[in-house]
Structure formats: structure tokens, C-alpha cells
Write a structure and sequence with these properties.
The complex is a heterodimer of chains A (227) and B (246). Chain A is an all-alpha fold. Chain A has one domain. Chain A has 9 helices and no strands. The longest helix of chain A is centred in the middle third of the chain and has 30 residues. The radius of gyration of chain A is 18 Å and the shape is elongated. About 2% of the residues of chain B have low confidence. Chain B is mostly helical and 246 residues long. Chain B has one domain. Classes of the chains: A mainly alpha (227), B mainly alpha (246). At the A-B interface, helix 7, helix 8 and helix 9 of A face helix 5 and helix 6 of B.
């Protein structure tokens, strides 16, 4: 058998994830509709006053995005774990952390990017102006990969554990706190006409850090779960 | 020194050593708590602004320190367990978590009780309060993950990964919460504005922190001992101990 280069392996991992997701499209839509429904609940709970909604909009959309991407995490490794694909990935001659990064990237394309694309609609519903919506999209674009990366560690740790779905929220949500603060903080700062660049830089720095560290932690957790 | 360290890293030799150390640390804890409480409640002067209600800080501050230290120590043991694959380090990490969570809870609880007469409310979204609450969540996650996995080795290794990921995140969470706080509200009440403290107050606080350390060591050793018995129950020496106690 010829050597498979790392690039080919990565491309295969990403392509496989996307093919699988395209055959089970409802999974992608479930997450998306959860996001919409969760945001819709807030005006119903808080009241239709647009001024109030505008002030809480960045936080509401960010919290909903947090929860939506967390709910999608359980699918990240579980079907691969059940059908044995995960063991093949572990046995592959390539670094597991990079293959995990490939999987997380595909997962982000399928769950994070749709959230980013949909967010302007929800932002408009909650009375955000065009500038704020643009910034909101930017923060979601920077922030949702972090959610997928940190979430991958939690998903790997709770693989095959009883009560894994609820457990993962306990593990992952406290670690999401900085993303929420930086992301919603940027939009909030812009609304108050304060300098918001710092929040974006922090979000970017956090993204770079998680890209470097999270795949290693997730790979270590996968090895523990599968052994 | 290294040999001694290695010698006691085996559960079999550590078990009797822990048994001997527990009374020592328990006694130290009792003495120090007595001294600390006496200094804090009888010797230290009454605060001219807050009256006697401030005296809860002798428990509150020490508990808050401990909750943070313990998380770092726990992650340290978890890392040792990951690197050298030693059973005892896993047990240490697991045994520290409940005490750390307890101290985080005590810090929040006493903080609320102090906040009511001083700030007029049990809870404010102050940076320190919020990050302490998140620390409590991190402890709860660690304990929940550990108890959700039945195989003790897998539980130990999985929770070790979580503790190490958590400890990298703790400073980021702390600072993000601080910045979040300064953005959302002006610095209404901040411990940094606290007036200079009398020397006796500081000393009483220090003694209480030492007392809590001693308490932690004693409790953790006791917990490790029972975990050793549970995990090593199939070995000859544990059977002998159990037979002798019957």
C-alpha cells in the first residue's frame, strides 16, 4: 500500500465528514433551527420592546450560538466511535491531533458557518443596525471555531460515557465563558461607541491558542476513551 | 530524596504513611483554626466602617485562596499522573476536587453573607464573584466526569485531561471576566479599594489560610487512603489489612 500523504489524509477526513452530513441533512438543520428557536424565545420572555431587545441582542445571539454548537458536539465523534472509524483514525500513521483538527474543521463548516450565515437575520429581528450585524458576524466567524475546538475536547472525553449529553455541557460551558465575553463584548462596545477592536484581537488570540492546543488535548482524550 | 519520593509513590507504602500523617495534620489544623479564630474574633480590632460583620473575611478570604490553590495543585497532580502514569497522583487529584469545590462554595456563601450588610445585596456581578462561581462549575464538571466513568483508570485519565485544559483556561476566564465587568458597570465595589488592613487582621487571615491547608492535607490523605483500599482491594496486602480489622 502506498504512502498516503498528510494532506490527502486530511482532505479525505474533511470530505468524508461533509459527505456524511450531506446524506443526513436534517442533523445540520436541527442545530440551525435550535439556534433560531432559542433566540425567538427571548422576545417572548422579555417582551417586544425593541430598545430592550437591542441591548440584549448580542448576548442573546451569542448564548444561543454557544448552546447550539454545544448540542451538535455529541455527533462529532460518536458515530465514528460506534462504527469503528475512530479506531482506524487512531491507527493511521498520521498525527491524530491533525486528523482531529480536520474533523473539527468539517464540524465547524457544518455547524458553525450556518450560524454565522443566519445571524444577520436574527440580528435584524432584534433590532440591530447594519454595523452591529456586521460586527456580530465577524465575532461569530472568529468565535465559533473556538467553540468547536474546545467542544471537541469535551466530546472526546465523554465518548461512550453514560449521560454524556448532559455531562458535556457541564464540562464545556464554563470553558466557553471567555468566547462569550469577547464575542458579545465587541458588539456591545460598538453599540456604546467604545473601542471594540481589543475584543476582536482577544477573540483572535484565543482562537490561535485553541487551534494550537485543543487538538492535542482532544487527541489525548480520544486515546483514553478508545483504549 | 528522589528515592524516598519514589518509595512512597507506591500505594502499598503510602497507605501506612498517610495513616500516620493524618493525625498530625488534623491536630495542626485544629490548633491553627483555634488560634486564627481567636485572633480574628477577639484580638483583631473592629472595622470602623463595616463593624463586626467584616470578621467573616477570616473564613471567606482563606476559603477563596484555597479554592484557587487547590485547583492548581489538582491540575499539577493530574499532569504528574498523565506524564509518569502513577496511580497515586490520579488518586490525589481526584481526592482534592471535593475539598476544592467545598471551599469555592464556602467562599461564595460567606461572600454573600458579607455582601448583604456591606453592599446591601447578597450577590453582585463583580469580577471576583463571577470567576469564583465559574471555578465552582469547573470543579463540578471535573467531579461529574470522574464519577460518570466506571473504570477508575479511565476516569482518572479523562479527568486529568480536563483538569489540565481547565487550568490553562482559568487565567483566561479570570481576566475575561474582569474586562467584562469593567465594560458593563463602573467599578462599584472592588476589594482593591479596601482600606489598609491592620497587621493583626492580616496575620489572622494568614493563620486561617495555613489552618485550611492543614485541614485540606488531612482530609485529602484520608480520602486517598480509602480510595487505595477500594482500588487495590484485589491485592494481598489490602486483604491482610481488611482481615486484621475484622
Amino acid at each position: 500500500m502506498g504512502e498516503v500523504s498528510l494532506i490527502t489524509a486530511l482532505r479525505t477526513v474533511v470530505a468524508r465528514e461533509i459527505t456524511l452530513a450531506m446524506r443526513r441533512r436534517t442533523d445540520v438543520f436541527t442545530t440551525l433551527f435550535f439556534f433560531i428557536i432559542a433566540v425567538t424565545l427571548f422576545p417572548l420572555g422579555v417582551g417586544p420592546d425593541i430598545e430592550v431587545l437591542r441591548t440584549i441582542a448580542p448576548g442573546v445571539i451569542w448564548v444561543a450560538a454557544l448552546l447550539a454548537s454545544m448540542l451538535a458536539l455529541s455527533r462529532l465523534f460518536s458515530s465514528d466511535f460506534q462504527d469503528g472509524t475512530l479506531e482506524q483514525l487512531l491507527l493511521a500513521p498520521h498525527p491524530l491531533s491533525l486528523l482531529v483538527l480536520g474533523k473539527v474543521f468539517a464540524h465547524w463548516l457544518l455547524t458553525g458557518v450556518p450560524l454565522v450565515v443566519l445571524s444577520p437575520l436574527l440580528g435584524m429581528q432584534l433590532g440591530l443596525d447594519a454595523q452591529a450585524i456586521g460586527l456580530l458576524m465577524g465575532t461569530l466567524l472568529l468565535g465559533t471555531p473556538i467553540l468547536s475546538l474546545i467542544g471537541a475536547v469535551g466530546a472526546a472525553l465523554t465518548l461512550g460515557v453514560r449521560g454524556g449529553g448532559v455531562l458535556i455541557s457541564l464540562l464545556v460551558l464554563p470553558l466557553y465563558v471567555p468566547v462569550l465575553i469577547f464575542g458579545a463584548g465587541a458588539v456591545d462596545a460598538q453599540a456604546k461607541a467604545v473601542e471594540f477592536g481589543a475584543w476582536l484581537y482577544l477573540l483572535g488570540a484565543f482562537l490561535v491558542m485553541t487551534i494550537v492546543f485543543a487538538p492535542f488535548a482532544a487527541a489525548a482524550a480520544l486515546r483514553i476513551s478508545v483504549e | 530524596m528522589t528515592n524516598l519520593w519514589l518509595y512512597f509513590s507506591s500505594p502499598k507504602t503510602f497507605y501506612p504513611l498517610a495513616g500516620k500523617l493524618i493525625p498530625v495534620f488534623s491536630l495542626l489544623a485544629i490548633i491553627l483554626i483555634a488560634i486564627g479564630l481567636y485572633m480574628g474574633f477577639a484580638v483583631a480590632p473592629t472595622d470602623y466602617k463595616q463593624g463586626d460583620s467584616y470578621r467573616i473575611i477570616y473564613i471567606h478570604v482563606a476559603a477563596a485562596w484555597m479554592s484557587m490553590f487547590i485547583y492548581v495543585v489538582m491540575a499539577g497532580w493530574a499532569a504528574v499522573g498523565m506524564i509518569w502514569n502513577t496511580k497515586l497522583s490520579d488518586m490525589m487529584a481526584g481526592s482534592l476536587a471535593p475539598t476544592g469545590a467545598m471551599f469555592a462554595f464556602v467562599a461564595l456563601w460567606t461572600g454573600a453573607l458579607w455582601g448583604k450588610p456591606t453592599w446591601g445585596t447578597y450577590w453582585v456581578w463583580d469580577a471576583r464573584l463571577t470567576s469564583e462561581l465559574i471555578l465552582l462549575f469547573l470543579y463540578v464538571g471535573f467531579i461529574a466526569l470522574r464519577s460518570a466513568i466506571d473504570d477508575p483508570r479511565r476516569a482518572a485519565r479523562a479527568s486529568a485531561v480536563l483538569a489540565v485544559v481547565g487550568v490553562i483556561n482559568v487565567p483566561i476566564i479570570y481576566f475575561s471576566v474582569r474586562w467584562w465587568n469593567t465594560l458593563h458597570q463602573g467599578a462599584s465595589v472592588s476589594p482593591e479599594m479596601a482600606p489598609k488592613m491592620a497587621a493583626t487582621m492580616l496575620w489572622a487571615m494568614f493563620v486561617m489560610a495555613m489552618a485550611f491547608w492543614m485541614y485540606t492535607i488531612a482530609v485529602v490523605l484520608a480520602r486517598v487512603r480509602s480510595e487505595i483500599l477500594e482500588r487495590e482491594s484485589s491485592t494481598e496486602w489490602v486483604r491482610e489489612i481488611l482481615a486484621r480489622q475484622r
